[in-house]
């Protein structure tokens, strides 16, 4: 177990570059299983979840050739070794799944590794489409409430696959050597569910029509990559996807977008402890309403080319609705506000002028980290598992340092931001959760002026 020791109260300034998008990386890496030809992916983030997925593919027999940036050594167990730089060097790798070891799918080791990695669920679609069978354990990941997989399996069944749950092994089995296109209306606009079904449908016979499909940039990028491999997908960026199945896919090259969740995290950090921070090369057109949501919190977010600049702010004031009632911020499927940023927004609101109601609709446990902010001096009323009211301090009552544990990736980065702004020293345990989604975060923030020490 590792911990961060944070000395709060140090202003941060300078330039930081977001890493490649974690959620996109997990999808497009799984998509390399759809072809026997080489697929080269660049701007891969060097984070725990991605490294674990790459290792899992290696164990299955996928050939992975990594190319480290010029200032980083090559090789090692991890995809890329850690490097203390505020400029995350996106890695590049070529994947070739021409000799898969299908026997490994039935091993206890495979089940164990899948159970530790949420992203493993997105291997089902490619394996089912290309190999006619797939096995996966109930995947792990953040403990933020129920994360059901019904959307995935119902979609596969609509394509003609047979589903079997084996509770004694804790695995789900699917088989189907002749998938056929189908009409389907997803019961929820699930990002991973949409991605998984699309990856299965591209090699199915006939046409698949998916209504209520997720259309987040991650899914858009996956569909564009699949089309470059020879797939025929229409309706990209909409909630209606039409997929004409093809006989086989070929290799391609693909570059992962900057991580919009990390961009949002840096905006929140800059608001609370920044002395002028530039977030460089953010792919502004793919951020959706993230910048405008922070502006509703009173934060000045300046767009300069493809960069964002957040100047130093002594105060920021939460807007109210036109009739003067308290502002409500709620997550929603894209193009709505991503739920992954609510933890950061809640932390930012603790030092704002004014109050705001947060409504977390998707996961019933994601707000349970607020007790740690309350212990630090924040004024938060947890109304129920899905709603919390934050009464801002207007910086008049600084958060105080303390000891806490990171319950999930996004709460972990929110607590780190709170600790950077707090009075005194803080300790955050279980930072392996943060490492799952943020590349060398202490090295990059220390380069801006933070005082963060990693303890093992």
Overview of this protein structure:
- The protein has 456 residues and is of the alpha+beta class.
- The protein contains 14 helices and 23 strands.
- The chain has a 4-stranded mixed beta sheet with strand order 21-22-1-23. A 4-stranded mixed beta sheet has the order 2-14-16-15. It has a 4-stranded mixed beta sheet with strand order 4-5-3-13, with helices on one face.
- A hairpin with a 4-residue loop joins β7 and β8.
- α1 packs parallel to α7 and α6 packs parallel to α7.
- About 5% of the residues have low confidence.
Defining key terms:
four-stranded mixed beta sheet, globular, 14 helices, alpha+beta, 456 residues
């Amino acid at each position: 177990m590792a911990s961060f020791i944070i000395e709060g109260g140090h202003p941060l300034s300078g330039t930081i570059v977001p890493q490649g998008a974690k959620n996109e990386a997990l999808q497009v890496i799984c998509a390399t299983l759809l072809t026997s030809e080489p697929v080269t992916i660049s701007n891969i983030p060097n984070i725990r979840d991605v490294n674990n997925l790459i290792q899992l593919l290696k164990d299955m027999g996928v050939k992975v050739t990594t190319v480290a940036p010029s200032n980083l050594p090559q090789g090692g167990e991890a995809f890329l070794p850690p490097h203390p730089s505020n400029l995350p060097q996106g890695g590049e790798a070529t994947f070739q799944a021409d000799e898969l070891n299908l026997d490994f799918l039935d091993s206890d080791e495979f089940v164990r590794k899948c159970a530790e990695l949420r992203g493993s669920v997105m291997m089902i679609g490619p394996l089912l489409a290309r190999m006619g069978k797939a096995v996966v354990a109930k995947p792990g990941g953040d403990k933020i409430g129920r994360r059901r997989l019904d959307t995935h399996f119902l979609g596969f069944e609509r394509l003609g696959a047979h589903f079997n749950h084996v509770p004694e092994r804790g695995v789900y089995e699917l088989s189907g050597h002749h998938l056929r296109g189908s009409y389907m209306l997803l019961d929820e606009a699930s990002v991973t569910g949409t991605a998984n079904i699309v990856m299965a449908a591209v090699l199915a016979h006939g046409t698949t029509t998916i209504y209520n499909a997720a259309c987040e940039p991650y899914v858009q990028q996956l569909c564009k990559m699949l089309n470059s491999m020879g797939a025929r997908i229409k309706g990209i960026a909409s909630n209606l996807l039409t997929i004409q199945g093809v006989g086989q896919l070929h290799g391609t090259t693909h570059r992962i977008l900057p991580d919009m969740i990390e961009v949002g995290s840096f905006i929140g950090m800059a608001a609370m402890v920044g002395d002028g921070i530039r977030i460089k090369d953010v792919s502004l057109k793919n951020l959706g309403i993230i910048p405008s949501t922070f502006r509703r919190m009173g934060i000045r977010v300046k767009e300069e080319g493809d960069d964002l600049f957040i100047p130093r702010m002594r105060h920021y004031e939460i807007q109210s609705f036109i009739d003067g009632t308290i502002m409500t911020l709620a997550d929603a499927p894209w193009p709505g506000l991503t739920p992954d940023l609510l933890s950061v927004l809640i932390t930012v609101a603790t030092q704002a002028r004014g109050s705001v109601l947060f409504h977390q609709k998707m996961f019933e446990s994601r707000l349970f980290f607020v007790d740690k902010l309350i212990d630090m001096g924040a004024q938060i009323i947890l109304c129920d598992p899905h709603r919390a009211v934050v009464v801002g301090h207007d910086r008049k009552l600084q958060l105080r340092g303390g000891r806490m544990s990171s319950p999930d990736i996004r709460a972990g980065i929110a607590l780190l931001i709170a600790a950077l702004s707090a009075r005194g020293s803080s300790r955050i345990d279980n930072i392996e959760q943060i490492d799952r989604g943020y590349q060398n975060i202490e090295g990059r923030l220390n380069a801006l002026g933070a005082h963060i020490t990693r303890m093992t």
